[in-house]
Amino acid sequence: MHPDSQYTHADNAAVIFNELTFRSLRVKNRLFRSNISGQFDDYNGHGGHARLNWEEKFARGGIGCIISSFTPVSVRGRILVRYAMIDNDDKIPFWREVGNRVHAYDCRFIMQLSHSGRQQDMGGVENLFNKGLSSTNKSDYFHGLLAQAMTKPEIAEVVEQFAQGARRARQAGLDGVELHGANGYLLTQFLSSGINDRTDEYGGGWEGRARFVLEIVRAIRREVGQDFHLQMKINGVDHNDWLYPWIGKGNTLDETVKICTMLLDGGKGVDSFHISSGSTFPHPRNPAGDLPLNDLRRWYDGMLSQGTRAPMNYAIFSNPILGRAFQALWRWRRGKVIEGINLDYARAVSEEIVKIDPDIRVLCTGGFQHADRIADAIRSKACDGVTMARPLVANNDLPDILTRQNGPEKECTYCNKCLLNDLENPLGCYDFSRFDGDSFEERYDRMIKQVMSVYEPPTFQ
Ligand SMILES: Cc1cc2nc3c(=O)[nH]c(=O)nc-3n(C[C@H](O)[C@H](O)[C@H](O)COP(=O)(O)O)c2cc1C
Ligand code: SF4
Asked: In 320-430, at which residue ranges do the beta strands (DSSP E only) sit?
């Protein structure tokens, strides 16, 4: 805690552990688990035992609400294989079980309805000959993943897939849905001026670019009614040109605020916004941290057959000079602030939205792991609550820790090793330096035991 702070830890805890009410949802505190998960499920998109354990451990640690990881509304829209989907009614029983597990801890569960669009890392055998559906025919700039501009019948079909996904989430007894409109996936590909190059009514100015998302919001309301929580994750600023200055810069904060206002749809639209930034995933600002070159080299080979630029990226990452230069660019573009990196964007959305409808809530993602920073963010009205991903992977019981003290003994270092391992390994904390032990073997064993804990107990005993 800052020594000059006028607030004690008890003051901060009182702010954080105060319940938050949305229009149709109550959460016991201001701490949300941000979207994060590994490839824990069956190849065909049915959920598995490891994911149940994964979600339960955060609920047990005291988090008020879990927002699921990327949950594809169709096979065509997945990013990686072995992620549980919501593309069919046969997935409802699994998600009902997820809800039951976390509800036992008075923890709410929001499903993130998602579509990769062209940003499909490894689409699996079903997508081998498909280009990613998108607003554009242009491939993504980072990996060179191929794209096909959606026709109007395809737009209508995907709108319906989102609506049916929301209906299934409600039938499964979950507490709400979030549209993944951030970080470069399909909805960003429509919203962003740096990506959407359409000349029909789904492109052009911000109103045209937001039409697709507004249609999704209305189709969801038609299916689930007004009393089911509907949230939108969105980039405060796209920073689309952050790594490649010669491409379009994407949406400004001003455009984002206008889009958010439009998505309120006169009181019938979304209930809350979840503010992020960066129009690709990953992006120097999301998850804001380091770019560990060894891990990058080890796992990026999985992308080699996916995008036209991946072989060139791999050559850059593997070259001792170019790799370090890229890493330096990454760190420079991230900036110095990690904890609360998106707060100014959240504040701008909050200030404008609250004037229109004081019942709309704003959540902010990005680096939060200290009680004083979280309490200040809420007190200053930049947001109503914060979402946390990596800090909770590092310390699953972070909410419980924050009831007692300002931060964890062993903080998340934002090294991003969890992120890069996620391409091939189970998700968990891979920062070796955070594990105790007298020898390399002891520390490594502890780290792996923590990573593998989601598989315990085994499905068959
Ligand atoms: C391994 C990994 C997987 C993630 N998966 C998702 C995802 O499925 N959907 C999403 O919206 N954000 C995803 N994120 C972003 C996080 O939800 C979060 O917004 C971001 O990491 C910043 O928060 P943090 O600093 O608390 O980690 C992921 C991040 C990581 C590190
Ligand atoms: S590997 Fe661990 S310390 Fe590093 S960013 Fe991920 S959770 Fe944090």
From this structure: 361-365, 385-388
Q: In this structure, is residue 460 part of a structural domain?
A: no
Q: What is the mean pLDDT of residues 242-260?
A: 96
In a domain, 223, yes or no: yes
Nearest CA owner, ligand 2 atom 6: 418
Under 8 Å between Cβ of 116 and 123: yes
Give the whole-number percent of the chain exceeding pLDDT 70: 99
Neighbouring C-alpha atoms within 13 Å toward the C-beta of 120: 31
For residue 397, give its domain range: 9-291+337-455
pLDDT of 62 strictly over 90: yes
Instruction: Give me the number of domains the chain comprises.
Output: 1
Q: What is the pLDDT, as a whole number, of residue 2?
A: 66
Q: Which ligand has an atom closest to residue 338 CA?
A: 1
Q: Confirm if 307 and 139 have CB atoms less than 8 A apart.
A: yes
Contact between residue 111 and residue 169 where contact means Cβ atoms under 8 Å apart: yes
pLDDT, residue 299, reads: 86
On whether residue 426 sits in a domain, the answer given is yes
User: What confidence tier does 4 reach under pLDDT thresholds 50, 70, 90?
Assistant: confident
* pLDDT at site 129: 92
Ligand 2 atom with the shortest distance to the CA of 413? 3
Please state the rounded mean pLDDT for residues 37-61.
Answer: 95
- The mean of the pLDDT values for the chain is 96
Q: Residue 95: give its domain's CATH number.
A: 3.20.20.70
H or E element at residue 132:
strand 132-134
Q: What is the pLDDT of residue 1?
A: 64
pLDDT at 165 > cutoff 80: yes
Would you call 185 a catalytic residue per the annotation? yes
Catalytic site residue from 83, 141, 185, 202: 185
Q: Is residue 420 part of a domain?
A: yes
Residue type, 316: I
Rounded to 10 deg, the angle between the 320-334 and 310-318 helix axes is 100
User: Please, are residues 197 and 145 in contact by the beta-carbon 8 Å criterion?
Assistant: no
Distance, CA of 219 to CA of 9 (rounded, Å): 44
Cβ of 180 less than 6 Å from ligand 1: yes
pTM of the entire predicted model: 0.97
User: In angstroms, what is the span from residue 10 Cα to ligand 1's centroid?
Assistant: 29
User: Within 5-151, where are the H helices?
Assistant: 9-16, 49-60, 92-103
Q: Evaluate: CB of 391 within 6 angstroms of ligand 1.
A: yes
